[in-house]
Design brief:
Structural class: alpha+beta
Low-confidence stretches: none
Order of helices and strands: HHEEEHEHEHHHEEEHEEH
Mean pLDDT: 86
Helix content: 40-55%
Radius of gyration: 23 Å
Distance between the termini: 55 Å
Number of strands: 10
Number of helices: 9
């Protein structure tokens, strides 16, 4: 049995990247498995596969892709697969929809001839998660376990070292499944927590009006900073919240529950926005967004302080926009309330 104290999604990501780049048998198994669902995948085996970790394309608003796979078929047609890997963490806000949109964007921009999104997770996760239809297909951890178990058994008398490597990866996946069954218990990341503390100390001095709360210890994927006290609640309006989405390169002013009223609100308030502000849907919420530079919480704060300053300045601008436009927002709310709100 493994002695790992913790298995993260990143650990599983790296298993997938290694196998997809290095193992022809795994490449064949994986693409055959995808082909059973989406059909039409014809891999030109001699050209191999390129697998990448944590990909975020320029001009994309879809955030990072956990694992991205590129390959060509016999007709020189290119396919891109976008993999989202989950153990137990819930989807980020609107994440399945973002993958669906990214597939469409890849095709529309001519980056590939075919593109599919894939969710990889334990069976129990797949059985309970919502919006799975937004992914083109799903693969369970248990299927991966069966693959590595079969390979370990096949090579036991032929190549003991290779057999042990497959057995090791099988056990890692089993531990990840057990973790999912026990429920979400985030592992604290010291580097990420240190970044959050530095961000808080900087905001306390340079953006006191945002009233950022001191951070608690953070797991590795904590990259949404919530300014919970920055806006004065105006009843009967829904809750408004400013968020700095570090890796998504966005600062948002979100209006909870107003996603379905995107068209009406964006028309009524369009003239009030600055040139670099825009309306967008954020799952069930409506957001006024400012594009900023992406920030990586694994990189020391000091190396990104200028990017944090830009983000905080954008948050202050959205705070001021809300302060000035509260009455206009309330007027729009009252107009909608007669019909739909």
């Amino acid at each position: 049995m493994l002695t790992y104290s913790y298995i993260s999604e990143r650990d599983i990501d790296l298993i997938l990247v290694e196998e997809l780049n290095c193992s022809s048998s795994f490449q064949k198994w994986f693409l055959n498995r995808i082909n059973k669902t989406v059909g039409g995948i014809e891999w030109h085996g001699r050209k191999g596969i390129d697998a990448f970790h944590s990909i975020s394309r320029e001009n994309s608003k879809s955030g990072e892709t956990d694992v991205e796979i590129h390959f060509f078929d016999k007709s020189e047609k290119k396919t891109i697969l976008l993999l989202e890997n989950k153990i137990d963490a819930e989807f980020q806000d609107g994440q399945p929809n973002r993958y669906n949109k990214e597939v469409k964007r890849v095709l529309a921009d001519g980056l590939a001839d075919y593109c599919y999104s894939i969710l990889i997770a334990p069976k129990n996760y797949l059985a309970s998660a919502s919006n799975l239809n937004l992914f083109d297909t799903q693969i369970s951890y248990e299927e991966l376990i069966s693959y590595f178990k079969s390979r370990a058994k096949k090579h036991f008398n032929l190549n003991l070292e290779l057999s042990k490597r497959h057995e090791h990866k099988k056990e890692m996946l089993i531990q990840a499944v057990d973790k999912q069954r026990r429920g979400y218990a985030p592992e604290i990341d010291k580097a990420v927590t240190a970044f959050w503390v530095a961000y808080y100390e900087y905001a306390k001095v340079h953006a006191p009006s945002l009233k950022l709360d001191p951070p608690s210890p953070k797991p590795s994927r904590s990259d949404f900073i919530f300014f919970k006290n920055a806006l004065q609640r105006v009843y009967p309006l829904p809750k408004f919240m400013i968020k700095h989405k570090l890796r998504h390169a966005l600062v948002d002013l979100e209006i909870q529950g107003w996603g379905e009223h995107y068209q009406e609100i964006s028309i009524s308030l369009a003239d009030s926005l600055d040139s670099d502000m825009r309306f967008r849907r954020a799952a069930k919420s409506l957001a006024i967004s400012i594009d900023v530079k992406a920030i990586d919480t694994f990189i020391p704060f000091e190396e990104q302080a200028d990017l944090v300053a830009i983000g905080l300045n954008s948050a202050i601008r959205l705070q001021e926009w809300y302060r000035i436009r509260k009455n206009d927002i309330l007027k729009s709310y009252n107009l909608l309330s007669d019909n739909t709100l």
